[in-house]
Specification:
By secondary structure, the protein is mainly alpha-helical. About 55% of the residues lie in helices and about 5% in strands. It contains seven helices and four strands. The C terminus is likely disordered.
Length: about 220
């Protein structure tokens, strides 16, 4: 029988080093260094001992990354959605003609068209007649150039549709302003609807193209 007391107790650590395996250390002062076994393969660390976790599918990794991006940018995303909702609400409700007659709607469409023309670089003068304004719009839209060459077809298509709307608004505005009889109410309602579509077409034209050089008034009205 052997009696082991506290003074006979002894412990030492073993640390793992890559390419070397487990190395024992003797931290107790006064004791000689521990002798390491000659066969290092027995003490070497085997990665197969660790549990192998299956690799997660790509859609799981993507969902984790998406959640991290959402947590980082969620407040900016919410602010952007709020701004879009405000703009959409203003376009839908703020532009409604509350209590306006047909001729007042046509005049409002013509005034908005003049405001959009100045944004597109088309010269607008208070002394211009509706026909002169339509001619200036036609030349201004035709002279616009796309940012890149492959947008040329889309730009021409938008310009053609926008010009049709401009001519309709101008023609009905002339009838409202100068003709003795007012046009048909259905036609004035059509002008109001076309004016709303025209606003988006002109905005797309402005986004797809670059502003041309300033146009001389004499050249436009020649």
């Amino acid at each position: 029988a052997y009696v082991v007391t506290e003074k006979d107790g002894h412990a030492w650590p073993e640390l793992y080093f890559p390419t070397y395996g487990w190395i024992p250390f003797e931290p107790t002062s006064g004791l000689s260094a521990l002798e390491r076994a000659e066969d290092t393969e027995e003490l070497a660390f085997s990665p197969s001992v660790l549990p192998s976790w299956p690799e997660r599918p790509w859609w799981v990794r993507l969902s984790v990354e998406a959640r991290l991006i959402w947590l980082r940018w969620r407040w900016w995303a919410l602010v952007g959605v709020g701004v879009l909702l405000v703009v959409a609400g203003w376009q839908v409700w703020g532009q409604r003609p509350a209590g306006l007659s047909g001729e007042e709607r046509v005049a409002l469409c013509y005034a908005r068209l003049q405001g959009m023309a100045s944004r597109l670089g088309v010269p607008v003068r208070s002394c211009d007649t509706p026909a002169e304004f339509a001619a200036a719009m036609e030349r201004g839209l035709v002279r616009r150039r796309p940012h890149v060459a492959w947008l040329k077809a889309a730009l021409w298509r938008e310009a053609e549709q926008a010009l049709n709307g401009v001519f309709l608004v101008v023609r009905v505005y002339e009838q409202v302003s100068y003709a003795p009889n007012l046009p048909d109410p259905a036609l004035m309602h059509r002008v109001w609807q076309e004016g709303r579509r025209l606003r988006w077409r002109l905005w797309r034209l402005w986004a797809l193209s670059i502003t041309p050089p300033p146009v001389d008034f004499q050249e436009v009205h020649r």
